[in-house]
Specification:
The complex is a heterotrimer. Chain A is mainly α. Helix content of chain A is 64%, strand content 1%. Chain B is an all-alpha fold. Chain B contains seven helices and no strands. In chain B, helix 2 packs parallel to helix 7, helix 4 packs antiparallel against helix 5 and helix 6 packs antiparallel against helix 7. Classes of the chains: A mainly alpha, B mainly alpha, C mainly alpha. Chains in contact: A-B, A-C, B-C. The interface between B and C is large, with 48 and 54 residues.
């Protein structure tokens, strides 16, 4: 450790003359209000990324509270049993008024869905970690359009305010998909749905601008020496998802616009009474909202690639296949949206979409096999990011494989709109994206804030999250195959035991997440100073200090090695004893 | 232009102030101004793609409902006067031409004609909107030829005409809002241009705003025959 | 037609006035052509009494518009002399546009379509299992036609009817199956029918209180219909 510290100091001294004003990006410049103003008007991608991170975590908290409320209702709802009507005890804000309680439940699951989708998972990785890491990983000083980046942050901010205003006004009960006629008829004279939909419209622009920025940055701002196939896989996946952000998000823009016109003026395109077509709305909606699940999962896949490679100290297996698989997922994502509508679309389209849906499995399986092969014979460090990466592999594989029966037309007609679907997308979205996101926050936390977190509490939290997650959602697979429909406020008592287990699981999950939150705050205040390269990583962000200096690097960086050359390159700023290079193979053979 | 002798510290007495475009400094994170210009244009094209896909929703709604209710669309289209459509098409094509000329003027440092062409383009946009609102939207709205539930035209020949008007107002309204945004952008560029911000070495915004205006024109090229010329 | 204007190290293309004017003139001519096509179509259909389908109108108008759009893109928007990446972006955008329109149209344009291969006579028991044979079918127009069908037994019928199962699988094989099933479950259960829903494990007894669950060893012949032959063979 002393070696690393002295190296760090050496680094600072060595380059001291070359640059002006090279404090960390977190160093306050001026007094309290000046610092606030500095953060509010900053065009630095790191600060914007950090602001996004905390905003997203806050929205994650709000969405999580709504989720706990949903589970609380289902722990003990008003229901008909063999013994007669049982009155729910846990969720009776309105006492004996069952309809009012159920209405409240509708609002909670809608808020949970809308917040988690549009305000948490879609921006989660690209806007927070992506904003922070992408330029540094490319060796750039900033993203291509820094002002646009700040603009995108403010759009996100105000879009979220719209959504929160809708919550304060009493919430929306349409489900997060805003299907017509729910969204055009419920709460008939109220502005809440309009505000919520307007929030989604506005948030779409934030997503577009982030994606646009990333594409141009990757094309134009790679450091000298960094070719396309020298980029870390996180950058590849961010690039792939940015393409979707640019090409799919405008359609949700026009969809929400038409929905607002439909609701406020009744223009009729989604209203069957006037000859409109509610299924047209579903096509519009899913043309965006299917590709968007790849905006959600692709960057998560990139995070996992980097985490597994660094913490197994092994070159990623099949780099190019990983990169092309990311682009393949992007391409396939645009032609499979109809599998959300098997029960509402015509049978020809359903058949075609079902057949195309199975294409998704190919690039995804390539990735899973490559991660597994990367772990093989690696020197695996058991720490929080790695635990999360392993959880990801386990959960995402379950999520992916349960997508198969849903993509197959015949089985989907049975499983459609059941808890099986709910469990499936939670395994992919939460077990995939959010698990990868939390693991990645741990992985890059020392880089972002220059503080180490407590590994013990990190692993404890991870284990609790893993257990809690499986208890919550695996039971929902079982319920779904037995016929429990989604979005119902009550159930027959056949499902009682599964719902109870699921709710208890959600509490374990919540405890795990709160441990992480506590761990992060503890680390910000009391955490040990982080070395520049605590994990022995090779991509460019580990070459600068922790936290990075204002312009990311002391010198304009040059890429001299790939991000995964663990066999040949001693990681920068590390002790060779702690991160030794592998023994040379006999006869000068190469390991790969 | 007076030359400055690097050896002397004195400023030449009558040194003319450099135009802003000559002193333009590219962003600190770019290697040179050329890379920045190129990137801005790629960014603009990505943005234009999102605009095209925004209109894709309108075109899709049009296609689906024309497929479902062809008679309503033919009837509805006959309420439109093709002459106003023709004039507006000519106005937009002409303004697209002047917008392209703006770029050329900036590239060749022809400041006067740059401003003139910017102004003409702006005025053409205004003319387009004036024709649209005064001769098309206004009388039709007054007749009760309104979208969806607001429809109250007493002599409708087809039950699905409200849908046609929904698509018509939706598509042309979205297009008109883009014309308004484009006009605002031209005002901004005009103000900058009169401060001498654009010249051969720096005309990124002129180029990008012109691209935006061409896109508005492009959308209209497709929208116009679909709305006015069906039978 | 056009020339490159030197600008330091880099050459940005400057459109020549001739190109711009020429493109504008062509665009105006094409606009006029769109109108001419429109009026010619109307004239043809009225003068000769020919019905011109709508797709002709759309195809002609969209073809001309595509040519116009391409001109605007190539010359006004400089794609011809620009970074090729911009063209790639535009093409991917148009591809996404086409996918969106194409698949949505594929669905909504085929609503209510019943495919020819499904448009057969309704045959009791369905048409799925057994050997192919030919039958005479009387169509809606009263004409008879010959159509090839399978033996007219559905999978469900096949499974229920031991004589069919025995004929196909061999009666000994079928008996073996029944014995195996009885050994495992203690009884040979009924299939659900429209009159009778068989309670399964997992469902609440209270919800089906009107009828007690079928127990092993008795109650076989009570449930009517198709089950008789099955019960007898058992």
């Amino acid at each position: 450790m002393t070696t690393i510290d002295s190296q760090t100091q050496g680094l600072e001294h060595e380059h001291h003359d070359h640059h002006h004003d090279e404090g960390s990006y977190l160093t306050p410049r001026g007094g309290f209000w000046a610092t606030i103003w500095d953060w509010m008007t900053t065009v630095d991608h790191k600060k914007i990324g950090v602001m996004y991170l905390f905003a997203i975590l806050f929205m994650f908290f709000l969405g999580g509270v709504a989720a706990l409320m949903v589970r609380l209702e289902l722990l003990d709802p008003v229901r008909q049993t063999a013994e007669g009507v049982v009155t729910g005890q846990m969720f009776n804000w309105y006492g004996d008024n069952v309809a009012a309680n159920n209405n409240l439940y509708n609002r909670f699951f809608t808020l949970h869905g809308a917040i988690m989708t549009f305000m948490v998972i879609v921006p989660s990785v690209p806007a927070s970690l992506g904003n922070f890491l992408l330029p540094i990983m490319l060796g750039a000083k900033d993203v291509a359009f820094p002002k646009l980046n700040l603009f995108s942050w403010y759009i996100y901010f105000f879009g979220s305010i719209f959504a929160v205003a809708s919550i304060i006004g009493g919430g929306v009960d349409t489900g997060w998909t805003f299907y017509t006629p729910y969204s055009t008829t419920t709460d008939a004279d109220h502005w809440r749905v309009v505000i919520m939909v307007l929030g989604v419209f506005v948030l779409g622009f934030s997503s577009i601008l982030t994606g646009l920025n990333f594409i141009v940055t990757v094309h134009k701002l790679r450091a000298p020496g960094m070719g396309w196939f020298d980029m870390p896989l996180l950058v590849w996946t961010l690039y792939a998802s940015a393409i979707i952000q640019v090409l799919a998000t405008p359609v949700i823009g026009v969809t929400t616009l038409l929905l607002i016109l439909e609701r406020t003026m009744g223009i009729g395109v989604f209203d069957p009474a006037l000859g409109g077509d509610p299924v047209l709305y579903q096509h519009f909606f899913w043309f965006y909202s299917h590709p968007v699940v790849y905006i959600m999962i692709l960057p998560g896949m990139g995070l996992i690639s980097d985490i597994i490679s660094v913490h197994a100290r092994k070159k990623i297996f099949g780099y190019k296949s990983m990169a092309f698989a990311s682009l393949g997922i992007t391409a396939v994502s645009f032609i499979v949206w109809g599998h959300h509508m098997f029960t509402s679309e015509g049978e020809l389209a359903a058949t075609v979409f079902s057949a195309l849906t199975f294409l998704v499995a190919i690039p995804t399986a390539i990735k899973v096999f490559n991660w597994t092969a990367t772990l093989w014979k690696g020197s695996i460090a058991v720490n929080t990011p790695m635990c999360y990466a392993l959880s990801f592999l386990f959960l995402f594989t379950i999520g992916g494989l349960t997508g198969m029966p849903l993509g197959a037309l015949a089985t989907d007609l049975h499983l459609h709109d059941s808890y099986f679907v709910v469990a499936h997308f939670h395994y992919v979205m939460m077990g995939g994206t959010i698990i990868a996101f939390i693991g990645a926050i741990h992985h890059w936390w020392p880089k972002m804030f220059g503080k180490m977190y407590s590994e013990f509490w990190g692993i404890t939290g991870c284990v609790l999250v893993f257990i809690g997650f499986n208890v919550t959602f695996f039971t929902q697979f079982l319920m779904g195959t037995r016929g429990m429909p989604r979005r119902y406020a009550t159930y027959v008592d056949e499902y009682e035991i599964w719902h109870e287990i699921s709710t208890y699981g959600s509490w374990i999950l919540a405890i795990g997440l709160f441990i992480h939150a506590g761990n992060f705050f503890w680390s910000l205040v009391f955490g040990r100073q982080a070395p520049p390269n605590p994990w022995g990583g090779l991509s460019m962000e580990w070459e600068t200090e922790s936290p990075p200096v204002l312009h990311n690097f002391h010198h304009d960086p040059v890429a001299t090695h790939g991000p995964y050359d663990f066999d040949d390159v001693q990681p920068p700023h590390t002790d060779p004893e702690e991160f030794p290079l592998p023994e040379p193979l006999p006869g000068g053979a190469k390991p790969h | 232009m007076a030359t400055i002798d690097p050896a002397s510290n004195e400023r030449p007495a009558l040194a003319k102030r450099e135009p802003l475009w000559k002193t333009y400094k590219h962003g600190h994170h770019w290697p040179d101004a050329e890379a920045e210009f190129d990137a801005a244009k790629i960014g603009m094209w990505l943005f234009l793609s999102t605009e095209i896909l925004l209109f894709a929703g309108m075109f899709c709604a049009y296609a689906i409902f024309r497929m479902k209710y062809p008679e309503a669309f033919v009837n509805g289209s006959h309420y439109l006067d093709w002459r106003f459509g023709a004039i507006n098409t000519a106005v937009l094509l002409g303004s697209s031409f002047t917008a392209a000329y703006c770029v050329r003027n900036a590239q060749l440092n022809n400041q006067l004609w740059l401003k003139i062409n910017l102004a003409i383009t702006f005025l053409a946009g205004a003319a387009f909107l004036a024709i649209k609102f005064i001769f098309e939207y206004g009388p039709k709205w007054a007749d009760g030829k309104r979208p969806g539930e607001l429809f109250s035209y007493p002599f409708a020949e087809n039950a699905h005409e409200p849908i046609w008007w929904g698509v018509y107002y939706g598509a042309t309204g979205l297009h008109a809002s883009h014309v308004i945004i484009g006009m605002g952008l031209f005002v901004w560029v005009f103000i900058n241009a009169s401060r001498g911000k654009y010249g051969p070495k720096h005309y990124t915004l002129v180029e990008n705003v012109a691209l935006y205006w061409h896109l508005v024109d492009l959308i209209w090229i497709f929208l116009f025959p679909l709305l006015y010329l069906i039978h | 037609m056009s020339h490159s204007h030197g600008n330091g190290d880099h050459a940005h293309h400057v459109s020549s006035p001739f190109t711009l004017v020429l493109v504008l003139v062509i665009l105006m001519i094409l606009t006029a052509l769109t109108f001419i096509a429109y009026f010619v179509e109307i004239w043809i259909s009225e003068a000769f009494g020919v019905y011109i389908p709508q797709w002709v109108n759309v195809l002609v108008a969209m073809s001309i518009a595509t040519v116009k759009g391409t001109l605007v893109l190539m010359y006004f928007m400089h794609l011809r002399h620009d970074n090729q990446l911009n063209t790639v972006i535009l093409v991917s955008c148009v591809a996404a546009f086409a996918i969106f329109l194409g698949f949505t149209g594929l669905d909504l344009g085929n609503r209510g379509t019943i495919f020819a291969w499904k448009d057969g006579p309704i045959i009791e028991g369905g048409t799925s299992v057994g050997s192919l044979r030919e039958i005479e079918v009387i169509g809606a127009d009263g004409e008879t036609s010959v159509r090839g069908i399978t033996s007219g037994v559905s999978v469900a019928q096949f499974a229920k009817d031991p004589t069919i199962a025995g004929a196909v699988l061999g009666s000994k094989h079928y008996e073996k199956l029944v014995k195996k099933h009885d050994a495992e479950h203690g009884y040979h259960d009924h299939n659900s029918s429209s009159e009778h829903s068989r309670p399964r494990t997992g469902l609440t007894a209270g919800l089906f209180a009107a009828e007690a669950p079928v127990q092993a060893g008795h109650g076989h012949g009570d449930h009517g219909g198709d089950d008789h032959s099955e019960a007898e063979s058992h």
